[in-house]
Amino acid sequence: EIMRESGLTHGGFYAHFESREALVIEAFNYAMGRATERWRKLAEQIPPEKRFAAIVDSYLTTIHRDDPGHGCAVPTLGPEIARESPKTRRAFAARLDEMIEMIADQFPEMPRKAARAQAIAALSTMAGALVLSRVAGSGEFSDEILGAGREAVLGRAAAPKKPRAKPN
């Protein structure tokens, strides 16, 4: 279906990917790597004590909610990956671990184990809030979910953010 929609032949697919699984792995590797790199670039531009909040604020936005194709692959592809092969799940988990480590890096004052636990909780909350906000649509209820997610992660009330840059 992908090749047909791209105007290419079935044989052309296998010239680039050995299987559907290989395509799936390549697609989410690209998407997750892109999100992590955006976080890194964002973090480089601001003082260390503001980096975590900036990542959260850039993630839980109406723009990210409304454009899943350009956002984080975790809330978009996670439910699908859970039904894939063990090889695909391992590859996704490795990228997920990189994202968690990048977030954990934002807590240098914490012992690494505690920073990692904080990062896992934050990403879990952020991805869940994004999924629920997408389910709720684009109205007030959806915005409320995004704000509650930010408050849960950052410990402060926040209005829906509209980032200047593309979502993570």
> How much beta, percentage-wise?
under 5%
Number of strands: 0
Poorly predicted runs of 5 or more residues: none
Give the biggest sheet.
none
The secondary-structure element order is HHHHHHHHH
Class computed from helices, strands and strand pairing: mainly alpha
Percent of residues in helices comes to over 70%
| Distance from first to last alpha carbon | 28 Å
How many helices? The count is 9
C-alpha Rg, in Å? 17 Å
List keywords for this structure.
168 residues; mainly alpha; 9 helices; 0% strand
Account of the 3D structure:
With 168 residues, the chain is mostly helical. Helix content is 73%, strand content 0%. It is built from 9 helices and no strands. The protein is globular and about 55 Å long. The model has no long low-confidence stretch (mean pLDDT 85).
Helices and strands in order:
Blueprint (H helix, E strand, L loop, with lengths): L1 H5 L3 H7 L3 H25 L3 H12 L2 H5 L6 H9 L4 H19 L7 H25 L3 H15 L14
Task: Tell me briefly what this model is.
With 168 residues, this protein is an all-alpha fold. The two termini are 28 Å apart.
